Amino acid sequence: MACDLTAIDRHILGEVWTTDEMWRNLVHLCDDLGHRFGGSASEHAAAQFLLEKMRAYGLQNAHLEEFPVYTWDRGTCKLTVTEPHTDEITAIAMPYCGSGVWEGTLIDAGEGEQADYERLGDTVRGNIVLTDAETASRSHRTDKYRWAHEAGAAAVIFLNRNPGLLHITGALYAKNPGGPNDEDHEAPIPAIGITYESGALLRRKLERGEVKVRIELQNQTRLSHSYNVVGDIPGGSKANEIVLFGGHYDGHDIAQGAADDGAGTLVGLEVGRVLAPFAGQLDRTVRIICYGCEEIGLIGSWAHADTYAKEGNDEQLVFSMNLDGAGRGEGGRDIVNVSRDNAWADYFRKLGDEMGYQFQVDNRLGVHSDHFPYFLAGYPSATLRSLDATAGMIGRGYGHTEADTVDKVTPRGLQMGAAFAARVAARLACLDEFPSGRRDEAAVRQVLEEDNMLHVLEKHWGRDNRADI
Predict the structure, then answer these.
(1) How far apart are CA 29 and CA 42, in angstroms?
(2) What is the pLDDT of residues 307-320, one digit of tens each?
(3) What mean pLDDT is reported for the chain?
C-alpha cells in the first residue's frame, strides 16, 4: 500500500507545532549538561539523555553504539609577546595540543593557504605562524595546520576573522595515528586560538618590525570512549533499506554547542518522535542517529558507516542525511547540499514544488562533517542545514567560539527545521525508485579528483584521530 504522504504531513505539522519539546531538550543539553566535548563525562550524560528520549518517543531498537576515542582535557595556555616588548595575549589551546614551551619569531601567513606557505618558503621553519582560522576559501583549519606543519613551523596561532573578542577553536590531528601511547594522539605541533582583536594587534606589531612570541601549554590527551545514539522507525515492504537522518550532539569545551550542533541533533530526534507512530507504514526504515565526536574527527560517523559493511549485516543503507546545521536561526531558510550527485540534486530541486515549500539546493562536496564517511563509502548523502543570523559572518560565525550558546537558537527555527526534515524523511522512505544508488570506489575517486580533493584519501584529520584504526 502506498504511503499517504498528505496524512503523514498533517501529523508531522500538527505534532511539531504544538509542543516546545525540542526547545526544552536543547536547554537541558546545553544549560544543564554542558559542552559535551567528545569522550567527556558531559558527552556521556548527553548520550544517556538522548537514549531515554528515543525510548520515550517510541523509537524501536534504541541503543548506544560505543566506540573508543582519544579525548582531551584542557589545561593552561599562555601566549606572550617577548620582543620588541612584553605583552600578554589571551589565547586558548586547540584540542590535542600537548604540553611544553615553544618560542620563535612570529611569521604572518595571511589566510594560510598553500600558496602563502610557498611564498614564505624557509622563513616558516622553526618559527611560529600567525594565520586566519577561516576565510571565504574552501580550505579547512586542518588543511592550513597541515601546510604549516609541513613547512616546518614550530607552532600555529589561529585568529578568528569575526570581531567580538571571541576565541576560535577546533580539533587538530594525531602525530602518530594508531600509536599505543596517549602521547601518540597529541598533535605534532601546538596550535592556539585568539580573537580577531588580538590578531589585529599582532599584525599591527608586525607592520613595525620583528615580533617574537612564547607559547606555554599544559594539557592532557587520554583514551576514553563515546557513543552514537541510534533508534529506528521500522519500515514495511523494504524494511532492510535504511534512510539515515542525524546530527552530532558533541560540542567544543569552550561553549554550549547549541547551534553546532545541538539544534541539528534535536531536529533529528524530533523527526524520530513525529514519525514513530508510522512504524511499518513507511516502506523503508528511517533510522535516527545522534553522532558522538564529530568535532574531533567525525569519529562517530566513521564508526557507524563501517557497520553496514560488517559480515552478517543484511541492511542496505540507501541514503544518509546529515543534519549538521539544521534548525538554526528563525527558520524557513533551509538548504539541502547534495554530496556531488546530479541526479539527487535534480530530485531535491523538484521536491520543493511537490512539497509546497521552497528551499535551496546545492551540489558540492564537503569533507569535514558527518556526511563524508558515507560519501567515501559510496552511499548517496546530503546535508540539510538552515541559515541563521551569522550568514554574513566569515566561516562558522559564532560556531567554534564561546558564543555558540542557546540564545543563538530559536524555538521557531527548531520547529521549522524539524517539520521540513521529517517531511523529507517520509518522502525518502516512500520513494518508489531512487535517482541513483551507491557509487563504486572508482566513481568516488573520480568525484574527489574533479574537486581537487584526492589528498583526503591519504590524509584526513578524522581518519587520523580514530582510536580503532
Answers:
(1) 9
(2) 999 988 899 999 99
(3) 96
